[in-house]
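Lab manual, section 2.4: Encoding a predicted structure.

Procedure: take the sequence of the chain (243 residues), apply the prediction step described in section 2.3, and record the output as structure tokens. A sample record is shown.
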Amino acid sequence: MAYIKNILIIAVLGLFSNQLAAQITTGRIVFERKTNLEKRFGDNPRMKQMITEENKYRIENFELLFNDTMSVFRPIPSDEAEEGFLKFLTQQNTVYQNLNTREKFISMDLWGNPTYIKDTMDNRQWKITESKRNLGGHMCRKTLWEMNDSTRIYAWFASDIVPSVGPEGFQGLPGAILGLATEDGSIIYFAKEVQVMEVPLETLLYDDNKKDVYTEDELKEILKEKMGKWVKPEDLEAMFSWL
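Recorded output:
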């Protein structure tokens, strides 16, 4: 009996060790973002004249570097030449997040000009579903967040990647977000690659000596005042909803 008991204990410990080994706490996730400019700006008469069947999709790549307490999400520079004004129709934000202090620091891309935000991380109310899909080689569960009365954001998280991190300023789920999409498919982030690796601490730290650093509300009010004639209120709100 003692022999059988010891065998069972060893089996249980082995299973527990395998589960621990499968848990990822530090690494790099490469995302592809696909923006359908026609869907994103289709109701804007001025933009309609510029967006064609050939240029309506914009594909960009980003990387998310993380450990168990911090992350940075940032664009991967493209080797391809940028195409005039259309390059300003999508944002290239860099977002630092500290899961312990619940603090975020953002270099926000405003039409090619970096503007800095320091604020607390958002608390989004996610609804977790039973739907699953494989992304980047990891089984993910589907969730949704109601941004407002007319817009839903879907996210897919992998519980075996432990830190609660994700693209842009998204987080707050029991695992890393490997997929993110608007309900109409106008903006889609999907993980292309997940690497288990040690991330140097200095990569996850932001420069705290930037001048003119705002909270989200402060910057939003400044933009409303300066850009209110050209930017619709709902488009401005949508920009900040991703941070």
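Check your result against the sample. The first strand starts at residue 27 and ends at 36.
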